[in-house]
């Protein structure tokens, strides 16, 4: 059976001679490739041409690279593309900046969009800088952007620095949430110092709520478990706090597949159904997008539909299937443009 056409994003260095680009696009057309978009990026000593190409069914990336080389070009990078890559650079930058201004904590996501980076995260130590990894300084944090498929250009770095400067201090690590019944809740990163508050959260949760989260009879957690919940290796924990009490928590942990991360939520019984879980899921979805994850995966009991309902309320696409005796819930990290962009909407 014939495979579905693939869309690829290529960066190419060509000889500075008349007709070089035209000859390359003709060669691609001969291989039944359709060039959907083209942009030119200035670099020292010349330019890099970036093309979004829809390849014929069965055509592999190596075939595209061979076509480029046949016209004397050098493929600087190639990666899978989607419809978002058809938006021109200035439009993408303006849209990313607007989203970051409307959406607390959206700076990493905006920078990743502008750079076409694989991930943009807050640095937790010294950052090695090279062609594929750059450091951006904000008043609140140091961001590190990584892109494996192609080196960063000086023009792109300048664009990202300008974006960060424009957004100024809008790289907060906390955000506000107004629940469905008008209560104020703070969403913030978890820290080891929150161990006692998280332990107290577990004591206030019913056995049913804890069983749905951990799939076992848990009431109290050892100290080492609490620390691991709050600072998961390579993962992220977000807490929901009302007054001095932690009333909910969410976790995002990378999976073995590069585009997916596991998500889990725990909300105190008295706060369930009020938008706290929705706010936590949206905060984790923003973090997932900034880190390059397109899918959030939750493992639920087969009769438990809470995560599906929360995703629907958040405007995030979701589907489920039975797997290994559990319900595997797949949640997209992006919601429709028409959906509300405010976490406060619950």
From TrEMBL:
Residue intervals of the N-acetyltransferase domain: 185-336
Any Pfam family matching the protein: Acetyltransf_1
Entry annotated with the keyword Aminoacyl-tRNA synthetase: no
Lineage: superkingdom: Bacteria
Name by which UniProt lists this protein: Acetyltransferase (GNAT) family protein
Gene Ontology molecular function terms on file: acyltransferase activity, transferring groups other than amino-acyl groups
Keywords: Acyltransferase, Transferase
